[in-house]
Amino acid sequence: MRALVTGATGFVGEQLALALARDDVDVRCLVRSREKARALEEEGFDLHVGDVFDARTLRGAGDGVDVAYYLVHAMAGGGDFEEREVTGARYFARMAREEGVARTVYLGGLGGEATSPHLRSRHRTAMILEAQGPPLTYFRAAMVVGPRSESYRTLRYLVERLPLMIAPAWLDTPTQPIGIDDVVSYLAAAPRIEPSAGREVQIGGPDVLSYGDMLDRMATALGRRSRPRVRVPLLSPRLSSLWLGLVTPVDTKVARPLVEGLKTATVVTDPSGATLFGIEPAPFDEVLRRAVAADEVRD
Ligand SMILES: NC(=O)c1ccc[n+]([C@@H]2O[C@H](COP(=O)([O-])OP(=O)(O)OC[C@H]3O[C@@H](n4cnc5c(N)ncnc54)[C@H](OP(=O)(O)O)[C@@H]3O)[C@@H](O)[C@H]2O)c1
Q1: CA–CA distance, 49 with 163 (Å, rounded to integer)
Q2: Which 8-state DSSP code applies to residue 266?
Q3: Which of 176, 205, 250, 273 is the most buried (most CB within 10 A)?
Q4: How high is the pLDDT of residue 298?
Q5: How far apart are CA 285 and CA 289, in angstroms?
Q6: Which of 73, 110, 120, 202 best tests ligand 1's pocket when mutated (most atoms within 8 Å of CB)?
Q7: How far is CA 215 from the centre of its chain?
Q8: Would the pTM count as exceeding 0.90?
Q9: How far apart are CA 261 and CA 257, in angstroms?
Q10: How many angstroms is it from 11 CA to the middle of ligand 1?
């Protein structure tokens, strides 16, 4: 089987490319910069240099490909990311259809799509891929936990660097995080699970937690005491994201749409798609432990 992995220099895409290669899948990585993808090239991956916002550069990416993964978001570019994401999804879907790709697989977010520009845009991307490309498996997840994830790094920074946490109302919003290893297992299995074609698959770990709970559990995973919280219920998403940009390494451009999404519950409401896969995702404490351990190996 041959797979095209878009977003292979990113957190989820890189882990997926490595896992597929371990399963003897022939992997082609679509990357914007050969320089940035040097580690992938050294691992022996076939690279196709292209940008989903430039249709010309996508030509040939899907040649001989059975499954094309779309693991891209445009938040880092700031500004009108919604418009850019529509364009990227259209070009990618058209390329995949014209080049005879049998299946596309996409990972979007959980939660009501109308409530924040970020969640709305993730869902719209799925609708375009589904309408204009080959049969789609549309995975939906809340926070994906792993050492390179922006969300994990943000939680870790907040716990490690701040003597106390400001506690906006969104700290109480329920969410259902999932570990990167489990997400990769779902993504990699999708082409073999025929009934997952043309449907939504909501995935999540076994724990439904508030963001506040996650901070406390991160403190435990790091062997620290939980931080006291100061209630500031009226903190706006704009101020929250500026604050996150100030106290963590997360780019404010990325923090803003993410924070807007934190007002929305991101939990699995329909587990029927996930049951097709027979995967039992690891508990939150376990995936945190793995991520902290991986950080220690790298430091
Ligand atoms: N991480 C999570 O917690 C989470 C949760 C739910 C869903 N998801 C979804 O999973 C997918 C991947 O997320 P991630 O966390 O892995 O993101 P990430 O680490 O920020 O990676 C994004 C990837 O997209 C690539 N990219 C951006 N614009 C591109 C363009 N115009 N053309 C080609 N490639 C482009 C980036 O390439 P460069 O390296 O060149 O910038 C990078 O490889 C997204 O659809 C996201 O919504 C993630």
Answers
A1: 44
A2: B
A3: 205
A4: 65
A5: 6
A6: 73
A7: 20
A8: yes
A9: 6
A10: 7
Q: Which superfamily does CATH assign the domain made up of 2-142+180-203+267-279 to?
A: NAD(P)-binding Rossmann-like Domain (3.40.50.720)
Domain residue ranges of the chain, discontinuous segments joined by +: 2-142+180-203+267-279
**3-class secondary structure, 7:** coil
Q: Give residue 9 CA to ligand 1 midpoint distance, Å.
A: 8
Residue list, ligand 1 pocket, CB within 6 Å:
6-7, 9-13, 32-33, 36, 51-53, 71-74, 88, 107-109, 122, 141, 143-144, 149, 151
What is residue 204's predicted lDDT score, i.e. its pLDDT?
98
- How far is the centre of ligand 1, averaged over its atoms, from the C-alpha of 37 (Å)? 14
**Runs of H (alpha helix) within 68-227:** 81-98, 117-132, 150-161, 180-189, 211-221
227 CA distance to ligand 1 middle (Å): 31
Answer for the pair 166, 235: CB distance below 8 angstroms, yes or no: yes
> So what's the pLDDT on residue 110?
92
Beta-strand runs (E) in the chain? 2-6, 26-31, 46-49, 67-70, 103-109, 136-141, 144-145, 165-167, 174-175, 178-179, 199-202, 209-210, 229-231
Burial class (CB in 10 A: 0-12, 13-18, 19+), 131: exposed
Residue ranges in the chain whose pLDDT is less than 50: none
Structural tokens at position 111? 């939660």
For residue 26, what is the DSSP state?
E
- What is residue 232's predicted lDDT score, i.e. its pLDDT? 66
